[in-house]
Amino acid sequence: MSRPLTAPLAPFVDALPVPRRLVAAEHEGRLTVRMRPGTHRFHRDLPESTIWGYDGTVPGPTIEAERGQPVTVEWRNELDGPLPVVVTVAPHAADADGVSVQCVPGLSGGTADPNAPALAGHTVVHLHGGLTPAVYDGWAENLFAPGQAAVFRYPMDQRAALLWYHDHVMGVTKLDVYAGLAALWVVRDDRERDLGLPEGPPFEVPLLIQDRNFDLDEQGRLIGRLVHKTDPEVMEAFPPFTVVNGKVWPVLDVQPATYRLRAINGSNARTYRLVLLRDGAPDLERITQIGTDHGLVRTPAPVPADGLLLAPAERADLLVDFSDLAPGSELTVLNTAAAPFDGSRFPAADAESAADVEGLLPYPELLRFRVAGEAARRRSIPRELATDYEPPAARALAGARRRAIALVERELDDEPNMLTMRELAVAADGDEDGPLVTVTDGDETTRYRVVAAHFEDRTTFFPVLDEYEVWQLINLTDDTHPIHLHLDPFQILARHPISHEIPEGGVENRDLVATITLERDPNDALSHGIDDNERGLKDTIRVNPKEIVEIAVRFTTYSGRYMYHCHILEHEDRDMMRPFVTMPATLMPFMA
Ligand code: C2O
Ligand code: CU
């Protein structure tokens, strides 16, 4: 391992900001949000950065809505001027000292992509986790130019949960979100309120976790300008500075009391594994997870022993008990997940030595809590949380339609690799010729053909409303992909270890040849388990290397054209996204 880097910014000097709350009920459910340029200071010792933000801030305002009370937002695109991000591909993955270029500020010898400043600022807003009619869902190609506005109506007929809204423009979501177009959206309901959980400040604290990098001036001093840097070996940006609610490595003064932290990973590509440390030792028992992507889980769950994993777009609702701590106590949240994340373990006890320059994790620091004040207010944690959903019954799944999707990486000669998905359909009997994907489970082998590969290929998924389906996500790449479905949440059924082989040239522009066997690969060190906190209503699920993830999907609300995709934004922008169309059952007989 190369020598540790010295951080060019001091950790834990800026107070954790809490984004401004925009409570829909105080505006009769009618809001106007402007997307516009602004300035923002990411750290006390950094000059101001130019950003694009909702209402010109990073993060944008947290919208708070009540279940059953629709919210109408006029999204006004008032962006002007160039994209405030320098985009570059460094010529080498490591610098002259052997340090991975993504771990250091500046362009590392890369030239600034001339196409990026020319981006005029087209936008489209997606409410991630929203049960939203298709016309308001933010289809990636339905763009609004500067000067144009969209009025989107969100029915909010959905359970309490932490959602977020972010830009979703085809091809440049990674740049628009990185420039600052991301913010939180909280749905509340009475069922959750009856549990007496902290609501609002000071005991409920949202944590929007992102990573950012900055440019240098000629003297090598940090300037605030945002840099999106990749390298010839890693096509995702893994910037070195972790930013929570817009500040690099902030500190939060807490009372000795129970806090509700609502954490979300809003990074482009980085997965975090959060470990809480006190005096250098893990202190995870202090944390209880009560909710996931779509709100409360059925029963409180401990954090996994290695730490809490959050891939891009995943959320965790956490109760943290600081009530026994003396004033002056300090606790630190570190990230132990190297990048690109591949599911590998890292023991929480070693968190203090998690820095790993090759693993693009130069600074594991994330956030510090500092206990101040006397009065201890401990809350007891209800033993039963959600009662409004059940794991799907085997009966309901027995006849369910099954869909299979392979996640593949296609190597290209003069361009970054293409991360993409291949929708598979079972090959007809007698259909013998051409590239096949086979999946063998015991003595049964299923033969598949690729029926769609790219975003613009024809739609092949037409789920019928209210009917369960089982989707199999088959990871044939070496990295973990957080797969996100728009519209209704789903539940995980299983993670199956697999071994697979792809012959030389097996990943073509459209076709795929692969032999997949449901058995553990002898070189596979992953557990392929399901974390307790994944057994809730999810909209984003981690699919690790060498595994098939099975999810039970059921759309119940709206008919229309939606998207599913990897939430690593560099993958989503590079073709790891596909459409699906939800259909009312009564229309199916009329579909040609
Ligand atoms: Cu948060 Cu389609 O995404
Ligand atoms: Cu991906």
Describe this protein's structure.
The protein has 592 residues and is mainly β. The longest helix has 7 residues, at 173-179. 50% of the residues are buried. The mean pLDDT is 96. The site of CU-O-CU linkage has 10 residues, from strand 7 and strand 37.
What is this entry, summarized?
The protein has 4 helices and 38 strands.
Please give the structural blueprint.
Blueprint: E1 21-23, E2 30-40, E3 49-54, E4 62-66, E5 71-77, E6 85-89, E7 125-128, E8 149-154, E9 161-167, H1 173-179, E10 182-188, H2 190-193, E11 204-212, E12 214-216, E13 222-230, E14 241-244, E15 247-248, E16 251-254, E17 258-265, E18 272-278, E19 281-282, E20 287-292, E21 295-302, E22 308-310, E23 315-321, E24 330-335, E25 365-371, H3 394-398, E26 401-410, E27 418-426, E28 437-441, E29 444-452, E30 469-475, E31 481-485, E32 490-497, E33 499-501, E34 514-517, E35 540-543, E36 547-553, E37 560-566, H4 569-572, E38 577-582
Parallel strand pairs: 1-4, 2-5, 4-10, 6-13, 11-17, 16-25, 26-30, 28-34
Antiparallel strand pairs: 2-3, 5-8, 7-9, 9-10, 11-14, 12-13, 14-15, 17-23, 18-19, 18-22, 18-24, 20-21, 20-23, 24-25, 26-27, 27-29, 28-29, 30-36, 31-35, 31-37, 32-36, 33-34, 37-38
